[in-house]
Amino acid sequence: MFRPKFPEAPTLPSTHVISPTVPAVQHSHAPACSCQHTAPAPAPAHRMVPGFSGGTVAAVVTLGIVLTALLAAVAVTAISVAVAAVVMRSLLGSQRRR
């Protein structure tokens, strides 16, 4: 439903030029076995989403890593400041009681 619909690529007519001076040679070989072989199924075509290339994906991933690292640094700094505040409060509180 939300996938874009791409137009089908037109198929070009194939033209084979056979030179009248060279006769076509046909070789007939006996099959190696009596079983019937089928051609393998063609691989599905990979379609790229318009606007997203490998460089775009790499930039988004790199930006995500950098922002995550910055967020972790801010969190560690906040925890360190909170611990230092609790220690300072404890030290200053004990001096007032004396």
Your description of this structure?
This protein is mainly α and 98 residues long. The protein has a domain of 28 residues. Helix content is 45%, strand content 0%. It is built from 1 helix and no strands. The longest helix has 44 residues. It starts with 53 loop residues before the first helix and ends with a helix.
**Residues in helices, as a percent range:** 40-55%
Q: Main sheet?
A: none
What fraction of residues sit in β-strands?
under 5%
Classify the oligomer: single chain
Number of strands: 0
Shape: rod-shaped
Query: Which parts are unreliable, with pLDDT below 50 for 5 consecutive residues or more?
Result: none
Helix-and-strand structural type: mainly alpha
End-to-end Cα distance, whole Å, is: 74 Å
Summarize the model shown.
The chain is mainly alpha-helical.
What descriptive keywords fit this protein?
98 residues; mainly alpha; 1 helix; 45% helix; rod-shaped
Topology:
Blueprint: H1 54-97
